[in-house]
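Hey, can you fold this?
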Amino acid sequence: MEENENNMNQVEELKEQIQYLKRQWIYKTIIIVVILGCIVGVASSAMTYYFTLKAKNDKFVASTYKIESGTTTATDAIPEVTQVLSTFAELVDDQYIGDIEKTKLVNETIKGFIKGIGDEYSEYMTAEDWDEYQEDALGNYSGVGIIMTSADNGYILVTNVIKDSPAEAAGVKQGDYIVGVNGESIYQLTTSEVANKVRGEVGTEVTLNISREGEEEVLEFQLKREKVRVYHVEGKMLEDDIGYIYFNTFDDGCADEFEKETDNLVSQGAKKIILDLRYNTGGAVDQALQILDLFLEKGQIELITQSASGPKITTSSMTDKKYNFDNILILTNDYTASASEILTGALIDNGLAKTVGTKTYGKGVMQSVFPLLDGSVLKLTTQEYNTPNGTKIHGVGISPDYEIEYEKNEDDSDYDNQLEKAKAILKGEE
């Protein structure tokens, strides 16, 4: 009798939990997070999880698993993964009223496992995800013309808006936060997941829900997707023989575009140059190294890398330098990351540049891509890098030589106090 009462109490508790979850808009997300939180075994303290299953004879039985706290290897976590997923699979099969698509279930489980290792830069991509990722890297895709990154508030920051794009025409601005796509919240989604929602066939429409500083209400932009060409760099001449180059990304083709833009500025008489790496979250490391080859003498160190096992590897310039600018200033902020920090750190350590702005992000790790037979890939953090002088970047960042916070000018939206500071330094006014 006592056993039956306990079983009934468990049933009532389960019902209450299910009713509560159904009232939450993040119901499915919670289920996924609960599963992943259990399987990796990295909780701050040992916890016990209770799962209640309904057997075919309509009797409820409680299954208890204890997952110890502390660090682990992925291999050692497999028994707990199998045990917990088996438990949930029985519950889903017995209670879930919908159909299950096998491929989606497997792919999302793998994605969750990789996400569960706790590294924000590692991810599993399906073949479709990878194809779209490569299209972005080549600078050709169907979308609205936004470059974005994950923000600390759980949403997506617009780091740049591509010129002549649907987003620019509609009034989307750098510094905006995407909080929803087509009216659905994107809170805690990855950049890749949001990008997949924004992309689509040419001629179709997508609605972006935007939070903007100074605006109390969420803004709504209805955009028609177009074929977008991303220009990795944009250059122009400023006054007093100063050239200026803004970097959008370090994706494939960036180094070639940079060389063409720089050659053009030199032909116009540029003797000093400003490299604007603000809001540039990185890209392909080899592109940054190819650009460094243009500034460094053959044999000068560009970066030092360390893998999980093995000696440190020093990468040096492969060619003779091409450019000899009198002065180089680099504009940075807290979204200057990865390949941007490699370029910045190497130019600083080799005595060629100084920085203006605020401290960089501090992403001093690199990812390797491991292709799988079905076309999917695992992008995994495999190396940490330091600057040529051995300075650690990851979690630290690069502090500027001339620290100046960006200040918005309400009367002149084109005014840029950090850029003006850089120009003044190059003209000898500071």
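Oh, and this one too while you're at it.
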Amino acid sequence: MNSRLLSIIRKEFIHILRDPRTLAIMFVIPIVQLILLGYAATTDIRRLNTAVYDADRTMQSRQLIEAYRASDYFRITYNVNSEREIAELLDRGDARAGIIIPAGYGDNLAKGKTAQVAFLIDGSDPAVANTAFAASQSVGQAHNIQILQRRLGVDVTQLGGIEIRPRVWYNPELRSSNYMIPAVMGMILQFLTTLFTALAIVREREQGTIEQLVVTPIKAWELVVGKVVPYIGIAFFDLLEVLFLGVLLFDVPIRGSIPLLLALALLFLLTTLGMGLFVSSAARTQQEAMFLAFLTVLPSIFLAGFFFPIEAMPAWLQAISYFVPLRYMLIIFRGIILKGVGLPTLMESVLALAILGALIFTAASLRFRKSLE
């Protein structure tokens, strides 16, 4: 290896070592990817939030509930007093499944008759719904065998048992496109506005034109708004484009209000634009801005329930996901498009998104203004 090549290699190492931000990003990204892919990227569906309406309230019904609780597939999170409450929990996405045990369940078992149990499943996520569908039947069959084993000696024709009847809501065909298209819309909004807002401002700084804008009579907030408004328009165009193509090419049903969807998407843009401003105030070059933007987008995708259900993640990752705005936007998009729910049902997610958006955008604007001074 000649001396010139060694000199170039040495020079490049010196450049890397003198740029601690880029160096940190290069080492942090693999660690973040490893943690997210190792913990969040799991296809093992466990501990799904489940609501139970026990209209029978007998020892037999309690044994059935315990069988589902012990299976590790379902976490009995809600005990409700009506079928309507289960429907509301499924609409909001608070529960992924619902068990309805009718009155007379215990009497039917005692008489050797078939006792039917309704099992409702949120089909907006096909991967979760398929697992819940299979688990609901397997747990019911296992419990049914236990019941029948206690009746040894009884004529087979007189054996009743349990009949679990699963029913998938919102996406009965379990089509993955119905689940993915609303998620893609949320990802596009975050990716485009965060990345291109950051790049546009850093480009001005790299070219030296940001200083020319600062010395003009224009105010700091006018500069911020002027830089981000074009990207709001682009993001909305892309949002409508994906929505149109989703309906045209993939037959995604839109059951809710499109004006409500667009209004709440504008609320979500507060957070994504704030992230873009944060990145622009921290990055010195466009390349660095791109790395930082990816560093913010990547965790959001994994922790928001984009690919994998949040319930299947470790508890500490679930806690972190509450601070990810995309989590609430995906609930809103899937709720409006697939479930056709309105603002009252989505109020918890809307309030969380509004609070996070206001905090992130305000803090980012103050930091960006300070970086101009």
